[in-house]
Amino acid sequence: MRLVNRIFVSLLLIAVIAAAVYGGGPAIRWLLSSQGIGLLSREPVQPVQFSSLNRYTARVAAKPWFRSYFTTMVFDQQRDQTASPSALVTKWERPRVSIKLLNGDGPEVAAYLDRLVARLDRLQHQVRFVVGGGGPPLITVQFLPHDAYVRAQGANSVGNTRTRYYTTSPGLIRARIAIDIGTQDTPGEVESTLIHELTHAIGCSGHFYSPSYRRRSVMYEANTLTTWSQNDAAVIRLLYSPWIRSGMSPSRARASLQLYARSAE
Description:
By secondary structure, the chain is α/β, with parallel strands linked by helices. The protein contains nine helices and five strands. It has helices spanning 2-23, 25-32, 53-60, 64-74, 107-123, 146-153, 187-201, 230-239, 250-263; strands at residues 96-101, 128-131, 139-144, 159-165, 172-180.
């Protein structure tokens, strides 16, 4: 019996080792991969394809699901994802908007912000966003220790964006981003918070609450993505186009998207 027990334990040990090598391998990579795999992935399921973005934007603007996506992402809404009664488009309308990192979490964050803003300028051509530059910054980014963040913003978030704007032209005139650096342990967490808040700062006030959007949009309420998806990019491209203006209501914006889609046929 003791021999049988030893054989059984040996076989069990072999099975555990095999599971760790073959079955557990993906889990280890999932945890350690800098890109992220599975639930920890920080890449959207539909990454931006600049070469096809114009065609994609023209095609999806005609789709009811995308018009819903656009209004959910752009307009401040209630938890049931219906637009707030006072929701209006607010976007930057001046030709150049400067962004300043008031303090950093290392050179990696500054480099990431540079890449993010360069990509933002490729997504649309109505406003040039720049990091630094002359004159006072219109968008600022500040990293705060946890206690200081809680005192200023409360304990229910890790990032917050406050904006000042006119309800008609010129739209947005100032945005202040604050990020709780004390509760985020990895560069990916910091970057996912930064892209989420920067997207708020350029005029996307809404959130997606369903977990199905976790890898579809940086505006998912608990975002983990570090780059815009193709649908996010299409929203930004349309927001910063002549078809969408500050002061538009959700219904007017949806109607304008339909007109754009017809004109692009």
